Amino acid sequence: MDYERLRAFRNERNPFPRRLGIYVEELRPGYARAVKTVTEEDLNPLQVTHGGGYYTLADTACGSGMAAYGTMAVTINSAFSFLKSAQAGERLTAEARELPGGRSVCVLEVRVTGGEGELFATGTFTFRRLDKPIAF
Fold it and tell me: Dihedral of CA 49/116/33/99: which sign?
């Protein structure tokens, strides 16, 4: 598996995260790291990052870790907690790691942190692995 090519494919062909400025920096089977710098357009009426920004960053990281197995997977469930608010200009990193377990149903834990390592959000995402290879 050419992980660098897959990473480039995911960054180029994933329009919603791309529109939000989310970029996958690293991936391998069961692991991925994605980043995003918060912009003014990411803020809610309270002038802090909208929860959808954290969630999409986390889901993108988890989905990329699943994609690194070379087969398609879909999110079937998630639990997500918002712990701290990021301001415009802050760089967020989502690191996803697969938990030991199933073959067709897989769970990844994700942590969204800031530049100083502070924890902004955490969650688990459950995926159904499909028997369809990713064509890229």
Answer: negative
